[in-house]
Amino acid sequence: MGFHFSKKYRSSRDGTEGGSDPGIHRQSTDAYEGGEAKIDHVAEKKLVRKLDVHIVPIVILLYLLSFLDRVNIGNARLYGLEDDLNLTSNQFQIATSILFVTYVTFEVPSNLVLKKFTPSRYISAITTIWGIIATLTGLTQNYASLIACRLLLGAVEAGLFPGMAIYLTFFYTKRELALRIGYLFVSAALAGGVGGLLAYAIGNMDGVAGQRGWRWILILEGLPTVVLGVVTWFALADNPETAYYLSPEDKRLMRTRRDRQIGQTQSAQQFHWADVRKAVKDWKVLAFCAGQFGTDTMLYGFSTFLPTIIQGLGNWRAAEVQALTIPCYCIGAISFLIVAKISDSQQRRGLYTVLFGAISVIGYGLLISDTSSGVRYFGCFLVATGLYVVCGLPLAWLPNNTPRYGKRTTATGLQLTIGNTSGIMAPFLYPKSEGVRYVRGHAVTLSMVGLASVLFGFMWWHFSRLNRKRAAGREDWKMAGKSEEEVAELGDESPRFRYVL
């Protein structure tokens, strides 16, 4: 056995996992539902490694292919898509952005049915279907059919990222979540780099079987998704209790890991409509949604139009443009992995979100400036350095601070829904007519990221203030007349709960 229990209640002035007192994390005991659980940390490390082996690879592949199928239209543009379908610049922007109309519509509903249909079956089904749609997009013959494919692709893909973000909370604690969310964004960065390489290689198939290069890009990048969808049915476990790769002792340890976190009761992990209503009414959730909108403006504008931005820096051939995008994505992936690891270790989200948001703002300042191409290309590196950190950390931060499942899944769905509406706007920030410098697009994005960074900075201060208030006992009145079980059910409203900062 890797653990045993001690019947001792923790004072409401103590921290919890993710709390404000770092000394607590060095203890061999952790708070759980008002008690303590002693855990064999060697056994826990082995368990986390086992989870990573079985979960992380498939999560990375799923989101890599999802992001690739969503944004490869930017690479296809360089290989004749607009000319073959007789698209105007405005029509290309519409085709790019319209995906997000259905994408944001289905994100929250998708999250609410994830447990009902089970993650393995649901995620497998949507992956297979969007793979088919992405592949068939390469066979479109006109603007109308391209629009239809993009709308369908958005509707089906909508469930993946919010579903994966919630799925990871079934297995990982708040001290482990940011790095695993980070893997999702690293896969997005890999999709950008791999997409450039694939587009360069596949683009040379122009004329094979009488088809243009852009068609082969969409077809050959869509087919692996169909295969992965089938594999997911068998490879993805629905929850720790049914995970085929966990032993009975592992499962007991998983339950202890969950129980030691304040608010993570058995009832709290069930779906309750009352929690959904609380999420919708919580201003803190809405603040995160607004911040996500600002950062996602950068995510979708930069990811889709980086080839176009770089093309405007010099007289590059399509293959050279693709090659120049790869270092940007690599620096973005590396910076996020490093920061996510440090953030998990320190349980600090706000500091790094604000800091790396500022780095991206400086990058856009260089892109706007009337300087040499080399300086503006360096600006692309700065944007990429902050991009995935400022977009990704808040997606671990909000779930960390919403322990009850119904509220967490609704809050995350709303955060992604509002954030992804920026995908509707972002493509219109970079019309061809404003090339090669795209000053307006860069300026708007700079402003959005700057405002988001200020907003996240405010939330950092607010959570810190609430933690100090609870540590001083000024919210203990909420526990008056309540049993230990009732206090545990309060979730993030409990005076014993400490917000991750």
Chart the SSEs and their pairings.
Blueprint lengths: L2 E4 L22 E4 L2 E5 L1 H31 L1 H5 L3 H4 L4 H9 L1 H14 L1 H4 L1 H19 L5 H15 L2 H12 L5 H27 L9 H23 L12 H12 L13 H9 L1 H29 L6 H29 L3 H19 L4 H28 L4 H16 L1 H4 L13 H33 L12 H5 L13
Antiparallel strand pairs: 1-3, 2-3
Can you put this structure into words, describing what you see?
By secondary structure, the protein is an all-alpha fold. Helix content is 69%, strand content 3%. The chain contains 21 helices and three strands. The chain has a three-stranded antiparallel sheet. α7 runs antiparallel to α8 and α7 (119-137) runs antiparallel to α11. The protein is globular. It starts with a strand and ends in a 13-residue tail after the last helix. Residues 1-36 have low confidence and may be disordered.
Shape estimate: globular
Order of helices and strands: EEEHHHHHHHHHHHHHHHHHHHHH
Distance between the termini: 33 Å
Measured by DSSP, the beta-strand proportion falls in under 5%
Which ranges are low-confidence, i.e. pLDDT below 50, for 5 or more consecutive residues?
Answer: 1-36
Helix content: 55-70%
Summarize the structure.
Helix content is 69%, strand content 3%. By secondary structure, the chain is an all-alpha fold. The model is unreliable at 1-36 (pLDDT under 50).
